[in-house]
Amino acid sequence: MKFAIRVIKNQFHPLKVSPNANIKHGQYVLVRTDKGEEVFKVFLVNCQIQKTWEKFQPEPYSVVRIMNEEDMKTYEEQKELEIKAFYKCRDLAQKRNLVMKFTQARYTFDRKKITFYYTAPERVDFRELLKDLTQEFKRVRIDLRHIGVRDETSILQGQGVCGQDYCCCRFLKKFEQVNTKLARDQGIPMSSGKITGACSRLLCCLNYEYKNYLDAAKILPPVGSGVMTPDGVGKVFMVNFLKKSVNVKLEDGKVKEYQKNEIEMIDGEVNIDIDINNNLNYQEDEVGAADIKALEDDKNSTTGNV
Question: For the chain, which terminus, N or C, has the lower number of CB atoms within 10 Å?
Answer without folding.
Answer: N
